[in-house]
């Protein structure tokens, strides 16, 4: 070979890479030895200070037992703890009573915070585009007493505007303090709240409003344009109440004639002077009709009674012992039961709630002006709820940063993560390592987060471990459905497992039942497996519920496995299962969860046809990673190509598929489960283009229609 500069550079690169690897391993080796010495010296001190046996004992506890005489029915037999006893004694059986009790307990303490938006500025990006960014001030706090006064006033104003006690109103709004005030206000008058996700498509919203026949729609400034269109299709709506924007005046022109438009503040004023008595609900009354956008077809409304809400809260709140320093960050959609339950628990315990939104959450969030602080940095929350999609993004960000910091840093970092997890499982925390290595990452969320609840979809094990060790908090995965009011099982603070969804909470039983077709049986060894059936003692008239020995049961469609200590693992989903030609079953959801941790993947959809013997996938490619890969694979050909054009490159598709194979081996997928061909797409999936639900679950039918041509090509 001729001696060209190119060859020389490549050769040098290879040598440097090898050298890098050696240095990195040496570096990790040195660090490991130093840490070993350090461990030996500090172990006795840590043992005395941290009393790991306490945590170990709590972690080893049996969490649920099989109900005697049943087949695979598990129940939580924990004795009721302090607040559960209180709730029983004080007969707190509706959300309204709980809020009243909380107000009595916490009075003038600060309870609800909203951040002031001072101004909006134009910020020019490096690429020349101009984005509008907020200049934001501090949190402004409302006390519990003030909150209750506002909620009561809102409830009375509803009656003044023609809502009947026992009637319904609809809240179609983003998460903010007024959302909760409006909902609690409605409860004081026994008014049922119909909740709709702010991200729901117009048709779905119209359907929800239509089906529940509400006349009063409560919305926000930013959703007004959407509401105006929807009104044309909802003949029954007579009133629109909107929560104002801090900066802009709301444009109310163009609202269908005959519909009264009222600002939220005017409602409070009106309610303040109105003389209406409260009509508190009873525990059997319906608190909420929640529209979940099912992964197929139109969304369906699920009725949730006050009893359901309260019993879920009692089960839910056991997972964590609140402390006086706690602050809760509220930013997930309140139309999601998980967030609503978490916020109501925070109210019950007197934990202040600071409101935020995905656009202003962190310093780097899209609406925060460069150099300004995001909500997390200002609020410094200790508790929050999360959905796997958000945690995956955080994890992705951490990995990218480590990747760019070089091989040595990456090697050390991975080792520190392992080290930390190793000690955590043995009941130790690692405060010095935290402040030296992880505090900057934890600082992204304000630096004080001590616990998160994750729900809504399965959380990948890699992400779970990474978040737990980098942020230094417990990440409690829960499992449930709106039909069971969000929570059937939940991990507690001391549970250090990954890939499990905790144990049944005190308000419901979890039972497994055989699913022959999928090959899951309660007699499976070493642990019973089967469809998860959740027991609910409430009246329900839905067909999904069936009666058995006086209790009502709900078939979830999810396949679970129960360990002897009462911990549940979700192993499959009935709907997500395809049977390939050779008779193998592939769980599409599981494959997606595992492969989504690849840096190339922003989102993905695995598809299997039962007439074929392999599965294929459509990947929403990560623009940054794909760009890097393109440089590597295509060389100079990649120059000047847009992300969209790169996604059409077959060579890149093949390359990404190879990377996914590696990821799949890592996640121990079977051969038939690994997508044999992959198509790349630059379209990001959102509820707006109807490819995912408002909770960002894949809509398989819509996706396979949308990518019909691609799927056919992949199967050729
Ligand atoms: C930002 O730019 C828009 C036009 O793009 C202009 O109307 C607006 O006044 C600008 N705002 C500020 C604060 O400069
Ligand atoms: C609350 O309203 C429902 C109708 O939505 C009604 O059946 C129930 O009796 C009311 N409860 C009370 C305590 O008035
Ligand atoms: C709403 O209901 C009316 C009849 O009650 C029906 O004609 C209309 O098509 C419905 N609209 C939607 C969007 O469901
Ligand atoms: C109602 O919605 C449907 C579907 O979006 C649309 O085709 C129809 O024109 C709407 N009806 C009215 C009265 O706006
Ligand atoms: C329960 O047992 C399983 C399997 O042995 C284990 O992985 C898990 O960590 C245990 N959970 C708890 C909370 O002890």
UniProtKB/TrEMBL annotation:
Gene Ontology CC: endoplasmic reticulum; lipid droplet; plasma membrane
Domain of life, source organism: Eukaryota
Biological processes per GO annotation: long-chain fatty-acyl-CoA metabolic process; neuron differentiation
Pfam families named among the record's database cross-references: AMP-binding (PF00501)
Domain AMP-dependent synthetase/ligase: 124-535
Alphabetized UniProt keyword annotations: ATP-binding, Fatty acid metabolism, Ligase, Lipid metabolism, Membrane, Nucleotide-binding, Transmembrane, Transmembrane helix
Reactions that this protein is recorded to catalyse: a long-chain fatty acid + ATP + CoA = a long-chain fatty acyl-CoA + AMP + diphosphate
TM segment ranges: 12-38
Record family assignment: Belongs to the ATP-dependent AMP-binding enzyme family.
Protein name: long-chain-fatty-acid--CoA ligase
Gene: ACSL4
């Amino acid at each position: 070979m001729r001696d060209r500069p190119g060859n020389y550079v490549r050769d040098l690169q290879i040598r440097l890479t090898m050298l890098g690897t050696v240095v990195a391993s040496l570096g990790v080796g040195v660090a490991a030895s130093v840490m070993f010495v350090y461990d030996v010296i500090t172990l006795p001190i840590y043992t005395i200070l941290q009393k790991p046996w306490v945590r170990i004992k709590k972690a080893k506890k049996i969490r649920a037992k099989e109900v005697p005489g049943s087949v695979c029915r598990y129940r939580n037999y924990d004795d009721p703890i302090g607040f559960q006893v209180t709730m029983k004694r004080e007969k707190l059986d509706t959300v309204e009573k709980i809020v009243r009790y909380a107000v009595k307990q916490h009075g003038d303490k600060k309870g609800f915070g909203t951040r002031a938006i001072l101004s909006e500025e134009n910020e020019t990006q490096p690429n020349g585009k101009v984005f509008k960014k907020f200049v934001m001030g501090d949190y402004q706090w409302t006390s519990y007493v003030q909150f209750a006064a506002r909620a009561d006033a809102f409830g009375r104003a509803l009656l003044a505007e023609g809502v009947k006690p026992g009637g319904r109103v609809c809240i179609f709004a983003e998460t903010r303090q007024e959302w909760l005030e409006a909902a609690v206000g409605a409860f004081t008058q026994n008014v049922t709240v119909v909740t709709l996700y702010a991200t729901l498509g117009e048709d779905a919203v119209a359907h929800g409003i239509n089906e529940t026949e509400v006349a009063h729609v409560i919305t926000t400034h930013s959703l007004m344009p959407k509401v105006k269109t929807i009104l044309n299709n909802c003949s029954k709506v007579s009133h629109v109440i909107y929560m104002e924007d801090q900066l802009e005046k709301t444009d109310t022109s163009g609202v269908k004639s005959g519909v009264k438009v009222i600002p939220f503040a005017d409602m409070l004023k009106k309610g303040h002077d109105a003389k209406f008595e409260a009509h508190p609900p009873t525990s059997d009354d319906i608190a909420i009709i929640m529209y979940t956008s099912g992964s197929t077809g139109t969304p369906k409304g699920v009725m949730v009674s006050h009893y359901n809400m309260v019993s879920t809260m009692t089960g839910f709140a056991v997972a964590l012992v609140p402390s006086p320093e706690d602050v809760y960050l509220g930013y997930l959609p309140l139309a999601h039961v998980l967030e609503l339950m978490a916020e109501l628990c925070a109210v019950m315990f007197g934990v202040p709630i600071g409101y935020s939104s995905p656009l202003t959450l962190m310093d780097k969030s899209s609406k925060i002006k460069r150099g300004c602080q995001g909500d997390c940095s200002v609020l410094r929350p200790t508790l929050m709820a999360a959905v796997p999609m958000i945690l995956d993004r955080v994890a992705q960000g951490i990995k990218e940063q480590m990747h760019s910091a070089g091989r040595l840093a990456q090697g050390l970092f991975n080792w520190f993560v392992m080290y930390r997890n190793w000690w955590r499982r043995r009941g130790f925390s690692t405060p010095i390592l935290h402040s030296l290595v992880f505090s900057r990452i934890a600082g992204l969320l304000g630096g004080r987060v001590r616990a998160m609840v994750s729900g809504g979809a399965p959380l990948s094990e890699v992400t779970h471990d990474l978040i737990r060790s980098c942020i230094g908090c417990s990440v409690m995965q829960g499992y449930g459905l709106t039909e069971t009011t969000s929570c059937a099982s939940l991990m507690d603070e001391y549970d250090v497992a990954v890939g499990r969804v905790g144990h049944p909470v005190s308000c419901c039983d979890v039972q497994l039942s055989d699913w022959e077709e999928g090959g899951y049986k309660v007699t499976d060894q070493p642990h019973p497996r089967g469809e998860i059936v959740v027991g609910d003692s409430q009246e329900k008239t839905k067909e999904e519920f069936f009666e058995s020995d006086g209790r009502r049961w709900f078939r979830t469609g999810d396949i679970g496995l129960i360990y002897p200590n009462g911990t549940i693992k979700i192993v499959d989903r009935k709907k997500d299962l395809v049977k390939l030609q050779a008779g193998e079953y592939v769980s599409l959801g599981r494959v997606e969860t595992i492969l989504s941790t690849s840096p190339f993947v922003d989102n993905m959809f695995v598809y299997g046809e039962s007439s074929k013997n392999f599965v294929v996938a459509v990947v929403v490619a990560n623009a940054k990673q794909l760009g890097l890969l393109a440089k590597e694979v295509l060389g100079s050909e990649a120059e000047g190509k847009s992300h969209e054009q790169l996604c059409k490159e077959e060579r890149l598709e093949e390359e990404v598929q190879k990377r996914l194979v590696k990821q799949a081996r890592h996640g121990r997928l079977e051969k038939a489960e690994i997508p044999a061909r992959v198509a790349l797409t630059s379209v990001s999936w959102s509820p707006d283009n109807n490819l995912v639900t408002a909770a960002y679950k894949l809509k398989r039918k819509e996706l396979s229609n949308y990518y019909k041509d691609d799927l056919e090509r992949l199967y050729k």
